[in-house]
Amino acid sequence: MPAMRPAEELRYLILAAQREGNRLLGQALKPLGVTTSQAEVIRVLEDRRPLTLNGLGELLVCESGSPSRLVDRLVSAGLVSREAAAHDRRHIELSLTPEGAQLARRIAEIEEDLYQSMDALTRTHDTGQLTDFLRAFVAGLPAGRALVRRTA
What are the phi and psi torsion angles at 133 (to 5°)? Predict the structure, then answer.
């Protein structure tokens, strides 16, 4: 069997890391009853509320396209509210309910635990070049643009 090209191995390493990171996060979130995608929506709304559906969609990395199904599930669960904006009743804004805000704090704690374990691994490796490469790789692509908007 021929060896993988460096670009192919890198692609699969990124995919494997993404899957394992998502699996670990998903396991930690399971007792809260939310998926990793729902957790991202909740955390973005916690940081940037209120947002329109389009505004939310522009900040999500987990979801391509409209996050309407994700939001519908969170509204049904009583975690997100939809309200007409004061300046324009046709303009619908999304925000967390008190229950959603409480859940956002618990999600943030779980994420912090994951990041601390990742921090421990990065202490023995120089990740600057990899981070620079990944930023360049996703630059101009939908998920890359969403990440740039989130960090702005």
Answer: -60, -45
